[in-house]
Amino acid sequence: MKFGVLALALVAFAFPRVAQAESSALILTGIGGDTKHTQKFAKWTDETRSVLVDRFGFLPERVIVVADKDTTKENIQKAFDKAKGQLKPTDTFFLIFIGHGDPWEIPG
Question: 3-state secondary structure string, the chain?
């Protein structure tokens, strides 16, 4: 399990109310640039989505993924508009970035 997924689990554990709320998430995954990073980012995206749906009970339609070459300004705006349409004032929203420069991409 990568640190990002672990951090999300810790947030849900530390704040049980968050884990039980109506929740939505937007996962934005950048372009890998090479085969190694493309595969790594896709794996992290799939694992994160899976944890949100399978472990934390997010409804699948409330976990929006925009990944790789689809991560354009237009598609990101559409994803935010979709999320905005799903959210009520008491809901919880997670925005997750996966890609180059994310804090989990530690060399070594």
Answer: CCHHHHHHHHHHHHCHHHHHCCEEEEEEECCCCCHHHHHHHHHHHHHHHHHHHHHCCCCHHHEEEEEHHHCCHHHHHHHHHHHHHHCCCCCEEEEEEECCCCCCCCCC
Question: Which position has the token pair 């049980």?
Answer: 16
Closest to 65 (Cα-Cα) out of 52, 89, 56, 107 = 52
43-83 pLDDT, tens digit each: 999 999 999 999 999 999 999 999 999 999 999 999 999 99
CA atoms within 13 A on the CB side of 31: 6
Structure tokens at 63: 């976990």
CB of 60 within 8 A of CB of 53? yes
b/e map 3-15, b = 16+ CB within 10 Å: ebbeebeeebeee
